[in-house]
């Protein structure tokens, strides 16, 4: 069977660059809209396909928030731990729980740890303040 060779394309490069410009998790639709606003002619289906390919290759993190899949380029260290605002999508990288704790919890349920990600969802300080003040969210996605 022939080996699958990944082709590098202008579209793939443009999507990767656009995602690299995002500090927070972003949906394919929002990334596509940003790219269109900057003059790109790339189709939404291509953006979806390339974002999922980046995630499958381990080059992008992906999470689900309010039924929507969001993407973000991965760091180089292979560990993925974030606080994610469920309102505006602001994302903060956090230190992981100890490996000892993770292995103990896994072993307690009969699992071995091969890899892990950690996303903690809540409200960032700005959204919490806006909610307490009864205002609209500060940076809606």
Please provide a written account of the structure.
It is built from five helices and six strands; from the N terminus they run H-E-H-H-E-E-E-E-H-E-H. It has helices at 10-20, 28-37, 44-56, 99-108, 125-132; strands at 26-27, 60-65, 68-73, 80-85, 91-93, 117-122. The strands form two sheets. A three-stranded antiparallel β-sheet has the order 1-3-2. The longest helix is centred in the middle third of the chain and has 13 residues, at 44-56. The radius of gyration is 18 Å and the shape is flat.
Structure annotation, total helices: 5
For the sheet with most strands, the description reads: 3 strands, antiparallel
- Roughly how many Å is the radius of gyration? 18 Å
Structure summary, number of beta strands: 6
What percentage of amino acids are in beta strands? Answer: 15-25%
Mean pLDDT: 83
- The N- to C-terminal Cα distance equals 44 Å
Helical/strand content category: alpha+beta
Report the principal-axis shape.
flat
Major sheet: arrangement of strands? 1-3-2
Helical content class: 25-40%
Uncertain runs are 1-5
- Order of helical and strand elements: HEHHEEEEHEH
What descriptors fit this protein?
three-stranded antiparallel beta sheet; 141 residues; 6 strands; three-stranded mixed beta sheet; alpha+beta
Task: Give the SSE map.
Layout: H1 10-20, E1 26-27, H2 28-37, H3 44-56, E2 60-65, E3 68-73, E4 80-85, E5 91-93, H4 99-108, E6 117-122, H5 125-132
Helix pairs in contact: 1-3, 2-3
Care to give the gist of this entry?
The chain has 141 residues and is of the alpha+beta class. It has helices spanning 10-20, 28-37, 44-56, 99-108, 125-132; strands spanning 26-27, 60-65, 68-73, 80-85, 91-93, 117-122. The termini are far apart.
């Amino acid at each position: 069977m022939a080996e699958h060779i990944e082709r590098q394309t202008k579209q793939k490069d443009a999507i990767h660059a656009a995602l690299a410009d995002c500090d927070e998790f972003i949906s394919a639709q929002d990334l596509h809209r940003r790219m269109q606003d900057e003059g790109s002619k790339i189709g939404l289906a291509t953006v979806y396909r390339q974002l999922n390919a980046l995630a499958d290759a381990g080059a992008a993190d992906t999470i689900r928030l309010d039924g929507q899949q969001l993407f973000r380029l991965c760091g180089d260290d292979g560990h993925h731990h974030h606080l994610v605002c469920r309102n505006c999508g602001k994302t903060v990288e956090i230190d992981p729980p100890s490996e000892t704790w993770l292995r103990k919890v896994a072993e307690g349920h009969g699992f071995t740890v091969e890899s892990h990600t950690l996303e903690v969802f809540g409200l960032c300080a700005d959204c919490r303040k806006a909610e307490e003040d009864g205002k609209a969210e500060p940076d809606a996605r």
